[in-house]
């Protein structure tokens, strides 16, 4: 069994394991941090961005590159359509992937790159919320970039990386970066997804049973259990032991795995999500009291549901219940509506509200009472009429390189009373703000990441008790912001890997299950050969199809050849030949053997017992029969026919079936 690491992004993993001749992709996360190297895409032309000076390399300057790179406050940005870093495609051709298992909607954004225009013929499996919310993420991403098109695409800078300042000079696989896929590609890739429910068992091409179990991280998020009759592999990605709106993590299904692959730990290991949520509410309240407005860049689903609830309650407690909140996203309406029909995927507290009946999420109540309003874009019909300040705006994209958030930064950036609050840990907020500098509005970093931190991961591993733990190498090293945080399991065998590596996992197939056809099973006649031990012969044909082994009855029939007499004897069938095979067992009675040898014409036999072993010397035939614990040897220096005759005599002294 081998594992291929196709992505260096620990939060957006993409792995392939080879198992029983299959190639199974675990997640297909898209590295979006590459877009931070590009200038933002405003809805209308930005005077500030348009007037940025060109970057000129100090040596080997290429005039053809003029206009591709812009300089802003000491940073260099690419003036082009944003590009994304795909999972590595040279380690293993995507067309050879048999199955893709997706753990959550954040880890499926590279799916259109993998399944479309690559010759992919495999199958994709995910839970229903993962599919539907993943659709929202993909459609929003396409809409944001297509609504602000660029006239041209910059490419020459990729050939001059050695001349560029950091971080562009350190760009990983820049020539492999790709522009956004089309909406047609999104629809094509999602049409290949097969929906599964929690704890549903699915036979994957006869090689193993795949079961998604709740990971507790977000709506529909799952860990995957791959099991056979003799092996168990668990893939833990994006899990949480905290109590939030998704269904809690199912730990029992992950216990005692032969191999446990763990990834997707928190990107903010030094902070407490509850503490940061409190800081966010406090910063929003202070901003409103200063007659400013708060901008919260966010994704269209996930933590934003909790933010609606907590922030509204906090503002009401602070006497600011008349402050309007706006949720702006091309998929805002679908996201808000869909979240309230997912009772089976929610925590028990949220499920109980459904049976009252009540809305599981309070944002449905806020929408009915106009405390929360949603729009596709800032230029959507009705937004200008309803918009008033001070207010709180939730919109994308968290990278601030495209989407409505770019418009609000340009509109509010010069007012120090306004604030921008970052909650998504995917992007370093100082790099996010770099092309907008100098910026007067306040910036707060309140990362809310509910996935496992290092302490929780260490505790979970001890409880799950895997035979082998497989984790990214970075998790075994002290975290840059907290030297005492890393995965440490001294009692476990740990195998680590890095991006681009292929590692061998210590899982060897020793046994496999074989099925017997019912009509053949009915003919089995077992014979007891020892206390509690019964044996039976089985004559059949072993068939292997889709990795499933099955013994079928022999169905050969012998037909008369043309021109031959019906009276002629037919050749025996395969089954007849096999049925005549006998299997001997038991121990030899020496006295009975001596009598049979005498009956068969052997005389002058000498018996010798030495060291517990019995030896018979047939003097006339110059032959020795030596008996050992589990073996009988006939050492014949005479005619070969003598040895065969002695063999037959010995076999007559044993029981057979």
UniProtKB/TrEMBL annotation:
Pfam families: Beta-Casp (PF10996), IntS9_C (PF21382), Lactamase_B_6 (PF16661)
GO molecular function annotation: inositol hexakisphosphate binding
Keyword DNA repair applies: no
Signal sequence bounds: none
Subcellular location: Cytoplasm; Nucleus
Residue span, Beta-Casp domain: 304-433
Domain of life: Eukaryota
KW Nucleus (keyword) present: yes
Keyword vocabulary terms for this entry: Cytoplasm, Nucleus
GO cellular component, one term: cytosol
Protein name: Integrator complex subunit 9
Species name: Drosophila grimshawi
Gene (UniProt): Dgri\GH14706
